[in-house]
Design goal:
The protein is mainly beta and about 120 residues long. The chain is about 5% helix and about 50% strand. The strands form two sheets. Strands 2, 4, 5, 6, 9, 10 and 11 form a seven-stranded mixed sheet that branches. The longest helix has 4 residues.
């Protein structure tokens, strides 16, 4: 009954852009913090960025800072990840997650609810 579903993944050339969306159930969206994580083959799941309940405060990993932007539309129960200047090292499965927190946290274990993920592939 608590659901998160990502969309917008795909293939793009290096330097291109993609916009990911995460549609959440109303119950899930009552959590204070939403975040994006990614996981490449053979690597641990890593924090990409997070956004507070009201959408004012955002936190980004150093690897994506200045290139990615997180936003949310609380009326639509949707979180977005705008990805610009994509690099081959951005290739991964991207997940959205929700946690009961007043500030974005950066560890996967801090998040209770997860979507199934969407694949992003960046060609060199």
């Amino acid at each position: 009954q608590v659901q998160l579903v990502e969309s917008g993944g795909g293939w793009v050339q290096a330097g291109g852009s993609l916009r990911l969306s995460c549609a959440a159930s109303a119950r899930t969206f009552t959590y204070n913090t939403m975040a994006w994580f990614r996981q490449a083959p053979g690597k641990e799941r890593e924090f990409v960025g997070g956004i507070s309940r009201g959408g004012v405060n955002t936190v980004y990993a150093d690897s994506v800072k200045g290139r990615f932007t997180i936003s949310r539309d609380n009326a639509q129960n949707t979180v977005y990840l705008q990805m610009n200047s994509l690099k081959p090292e951005d290739t991964a499965v991207y997940y959205c997650a929700a946690a009961l927190s007043t500030y974005p946290l950066s560890r996967p274990g801090d998040y209770k609810f997860w979507g199934p993920g969407t694949q992003v592939t960046v060609a060199s």
